[in-house]
Design brief:
By secondary structure, this protein is α+β, with helices and mostly antiparallel strands. Helix content is about 10%, strand content about 30%. It has 2 domains: about 80 residues, no CATH class; about 40 residues, no CATH class. It is elongated and about 60 Å long.
Length: about 120
């Protein structure tokens, strides 16, 4: 699954609008979640409607202080801060699947990724 899942997720980006995916291994656990510059910057779903002026689809997010996303309404200019997940590998262009380890890490993930076929657990 370590080798197959990233490719499958890239083919099914529509899934990301609704849910994340968790992959559990013996030595690591990783959560994949979808990011989109306009609707899910840094994996945080921005509401469709401004809570102050009720305008639809006017909210835009930009990275703010470390660990926060600044969300500003283009109509009324009211802004708010949303907390973003830390220790995450985000997609380079801002659109695509990000991943975050909740136990283990890159070293454990790489060990599984680089394992020879003879070590695959197929039972």
């Amino acid at each position: 699954m370590v080798r197959v899942l990233p490719g499958l997720l890239n083919e099914e980006e529509g899934l990301g609008a609704h849910t994340g995916v968790v992959l559990l291994g013996r030595t690591f656990g990783v959560r994949y979640f979808f990011c989109n510059k306009n609707y899910r910057p840094m994996g945080i779903k921005i509401p469709l409607q401004c809570r102050e002026c009720s305008a639809i689809k006017t909210l835009r997010g930009t990275p703010g202080a470390p660990g926060y996303l600044e969300v500003v309404c283009a109509s009324c200019k009211i802004d708010s801060r949303l907390e973003v997940p830390m220790a995450v590998r985000y997609p380079e262009e801002g659109n695509g699947w990000a991943h975050q380890f909740f136990f283990g890490g890159e070293r454990e993930y790489s060990e599984v990724w680089n394992a020879p076929h003879s070590q695959y657990d197929t039972v």
